[in-house]
Amino acid sequence: MCGIIGYVGAKSANDILIAGLERLEYRGYDSAGIAVTHDNLISINKSEGRVHNLKTKKLDGTRGIGHTRWATHGSPSDRNAHPFTCNENKFVVVHNGIIENYLELRSGLIHAGISCTSDTDSEVIVHLISQAYNGNLKDAVCKVIKHLQGSYALCVMHKDTHELIGARNGSPLLIGLGNEENFLASDASAIIDHTKDVIYMNDFQVAEISKDYVKVFDFDGIEQQHEIKKIDWNLEQAQKGGYTHFMLKEIFEQPAVAQESLNVNFILAKDFSRIIIVACGTASYAGLVGKYVLEKVAKIPVVNEIASEFRYKECLISERDLVIAISQSGETADTLAAVRLAHQKGARTLGLINVVDSTIAREVDSVVYTRAGPEIGVASTKAFISQLITLYKLAFHFTDNEMNHSIVDKIAETLQLSDSIRKLAEQYYECQNFLYIGRNLSFPLALEGALKLKEISYIHAEAYPAGELKHGPIALVCTEMPTIAICPQDTVYEKTYSNIEEVKARKGRVITIATEGDERIKNVSNNVIYVPKVNNILYPFVIAVVLQLFAYHVADLRDCDVDKPRNLAKSVTVE
Ligand code: G6P
Question: For tag attachment on the chain, is the N or C end more exposed, with fewer CB atoms within 10 Å?
Fold first, then answer.
């Protein structure tokens, strides 16, 4: 988490850094700061809160670094905001990641008479660089990073010199190549309006960039070859395009995304005994839908693992397993660690990844891009739909059948429900708790619906397999706790219907998501949202859209910051 950026060129660094940080805010927004050099002096503007707070001041200079923070060590506050400078104000550093041995490093500094002014793990880096400096900034950085344990992407600047130094181990960092200007950034969105030519840095690499050159080194300071890649998306895709929120725009992009994702193809033989899906958050719920579909359509046994759990338990996998990592960002630390563990155990890995050339995409044995385009809203929507399509395509790849493309129109049809879902949200947005239930393919959808609601509206929402209600959660049912019941006319319709009746019998209010034309469902529902009729296994696509819209409208009515919910970040690059 945290976003970092560096600029060196002939333009005002202030504006470029702030605009870049605004695009990186999805990585964290607890505090923001920039440092710019001018006349051999470093000026810093930083504060708790959002990047726009930096706009009240303008720093002169054409070389600088910036940071937007997701707090790990030390509360969100001015004093813990990056950049950090050393005691003589000669060096300045921004950091994304976690320095695990910072306490030990900090006590070494205290022994040397150097005190830190923040509670962060990051600040030690700048003091160590100041100590190690012997006339060459890159050499000082190479020396210091050998003592750092943990993960980091760094940008470092000296007040007098002409270059910026970047270093990467475990957190993403790329170099942007401009015309008489160059950039460092956590990801391409920060620099896309300046250049489309980038070098994705690998772990254990250090970059030295100036206005006129870019060099990449290993941690021993030996220069390395680098490959320049072209970013294949544009600025427009990373803007709101008339919508009030990115989330709403991204929900409405789903027919186009689905169409695009239907073009993915697999070249994969069925020569493994089972599939293990590793992922986090929304991607893990897509993986759960994938399990039902792969098992039903392709008859392949699938195990779902939350990546953060998988990596710390007994890992019983072998070379006969195919491990599928699903990730929008391709940077999630736990999913990446799960991939590395799978490799150690000899399993093959396949990545279903959205961000091209991201770390996981580069580390898996083979990658299939899910083609959702840039997703900016912290709550994942279109990336989820693209992950589902890709998983369905994988399942159909192992059969003689093709996936039905009519789903694109059905998603578009479902989007037309937005206004009526808003009216429904007006009735319910003040509730404090929600229960989501579903069976079979609708259960992972219940999980995803509850996640969407809680992350953007801060309403407590619990999801349960409808059949499990009677084993505990039914005790919660009362008039104050509405239930969202997912009950399309699929193979488990009657079973779910009975579960809804159980809720009704206990005076619970029920909003049911049902198939159009199902009049009977009204007998057990206070409100019904009708989705278009589709093939049994395709209901997740239309139901997901309803759940996203419901969460969106509820959060908007509660005046929540839909695109940047509190405490969250889109790309979780720490454990
Ligand atoms: C964060 C995001 C979620 C996302 C999850 C996994 O929690 O807020 O939207 O589903 O990370 O991210 P990934 O990039 O690996 O899909």
Answer: C
pLDDT at 401: 85
The one catalytic residue in 138, 382, 504, 570 is 570
Identify the residue with better confidence: 387 or 402: 387
Nearest to 549 by CA among 356, 337, 385: 385
The preferred substitution site among 29, 277, 329 for testing ligand 1, maximizing ligand atoms within 8 Å of CB, is 329
Express each pLDDT in 430-482 by its tens digit: 999 999 999 999 999 999 999 999 999 999 999 999 999 889 888 888 889 99
Is a pLDDT exceeding 80 seen at residue 110?
yes
Distance 185 CA to ligand 1 centre (A): 20
pTM, to two decimals:
0.84
Q: What angle do CA 424, 449, 455 make, to 5 degrees?
A: 95
Going edge to edge, which strands form the sheet with 214-218?
A: 84-85, 91-99, 150-158, 164-169, 205-209, 214-218, 223-224
Determine the angle formed by the axes of helices 281-293 and 442-457, rounding to 10 degrees. Answer: 170
Asked whether the domain spanning 413-562 has the same topology as the one spanning 3-236, the reply is no
Domain locations in the chain? 3-236, 240-403, 413-562
The CA distance from 199 to 230, in Å, is 9
Residue identified by tokens 């296994």 is 537
Is 240 designated active site? Answer: no
Q: From the CB of residue 273, how many other CB atoms can be counted at a distance below 10 Å?
A: 11
Tens of pLDDT, residues 79-89? 999 999 987 88
Q: What is the DSSP string of 42-72?
A: EEEEEEES-GGGGGG-----SEEEEEEE--S
Between CA 538 and CA 177 the distance in angstroms is: 44
240-403 classified as CATH 3.40.50.10490: yes
Per-residue pLDDT reduced to its tens digit, 120-140: 999 999 999 999 999 999 999
Crossing angle of the two packed helices 382-397 and 254-261, in degrees rounded to 10:
30
Element (H, E) at 411: helix 407-415
